[in-house]
Amino acid sequence: MEKPKFSLSTLTSTRSALHMAQIVICVVTFAVSYVWGHPLHTYWIYCMVVWGLCPIISLVVTIVEMFLIHKLILVFCMDWDDFTTGMAMMASLCTFSCTVMFANFYICRKCIWGWTVTILSVVCCALYCVETFRDKCDATRSATYVAALPGFIKILEAFVACIILISLIGYRGNPPLLWCIVAYAVPLPLTLLTIITNILTKIKKCLPFSIDRLTMIFLIISVLLYITAAILWPTYSFKGNPRPKDCPGNSCIWSIQFVVTFMTYVNLGLYVTDLILTCLGICGFKRS
């Protein structure tokens, strides 16, 4: 078994240079946004969390690969190539959503800071997209789950669920909408648990039950919950609540509720697709 040791060639590789660029740009974006102001809006907080976590993940990946620790991880725990590709995909989605949110909510003609942060966020997204593209085109890297179709669908499900949860508004004192929050919240940890279990291949093989059948149960629960939310949220959000004439996209509650409605149907479609493909066994799942 190869022991961990420092690898200068890894540190000076194009991949490490890309990681360094991601770290620098994300940190600068985080700092500029923090200095610019503290709106304490859920979208702003979400963006700050993304710009804070992404460089940490890139730094950890760089350190692990620099000391060849990933070779030990591959032996004992999981497929490192699959994991890092999945993280790059998730970072691409998250930084893209930050760019859209910041451009919509915190930018104006005279807002120099807003424009600066948005441009920096675009660069962050581009860097992570480049890494994702490089990883997917590299034939030497494996794609066992996260980087393949099953895991990609799961990542999309988790991503859309996060967007829904940070967009929830106008639900207080309304029991049907409170139920919708439960319907949105429950599938997310189930999805994350499925992703983690499939990434940890060694642990997956040691389980006394079929993870595929458990995934099927999780998907059925998620689909049923999202069906209720798809009916209740638009019904009780827009009942007697037409779109106001003066409804700017960056501060209109009605528009945000519409975003939740739209994302609900998107995620319902993803879960239904995932369930169908899992049942048919054409997504890389081996039925047992």
TrEMBL record:
<feature type="domain" description="MARVEL">
    <location>
        <begin position="145"/>
        <end position="283"/>
    </location>
</feature>
<dbReference type="GO" id="GO:0016020">
    <property type="term" value="C:membrane"/>
</dbReference>
<keyword id="KW-0812">Transmembrane</keyword>
<feature type="transmembrane region" description="Helical">
    <location>
        <begin position="88"/>
        <end position="106"/>
    </location>
</feature>
<dbReference type="InterPro" id="IPR047123">
    <property type="entry name" value="MYADM-like"/>
</dbReference>
<keyword id="KW-0677">Repeat</keyword>
<keyword id="KW-1133">Transmembrane helix</keyword>
<comment type="similarity">
    <text>Belongs to the MAL family.</text>
</comment>
<feature type="transmembrane region" description="Helical">
    <location>
        <begin position="176"/>
        <end position="201"/>
    </location>
</feature>
<feature type="transmembrane region" description="Helical">
    <location>
        <begin position="112"/>
        <end position="130"/>
    </location>
</feature>
<feature type="transmembrane region" description="Helical">
    <location>
        <begin position="253"/>
        <end position="285"/>
    </location>
</feature>
<keyword id="KW-0472">Membrane</keyword>
<dbReference type="InterPro" id="IPR008253">
    <property type="entry name" value="Marvel"/>
</dbReference>
<feature type="transmembrane region" description="Helical">
    <location>
        <begin position="142"/>
        <end position="170"/>
    </location>
</feature>
<feature type="transmembrane region" description="Helical">
    <location>
        <begin position="43"/>
        <end position="68"/>
    </location>
</feature>
<feature type="transmembrane region" description="Helical">
    <location>
        <begin position="20"/>
        <end position="37"/>
    </location>
</feature>
<feature type="transmembrane region" description="Helical">
    <location>
        <begin position="213"/>
        <end position="233"/>
    </location>
</feature>
<protein>
    <submittedName>
        <fullName>Myeloid-associated differentiation marker 2</fullName>
    </submittedName>
</protein>
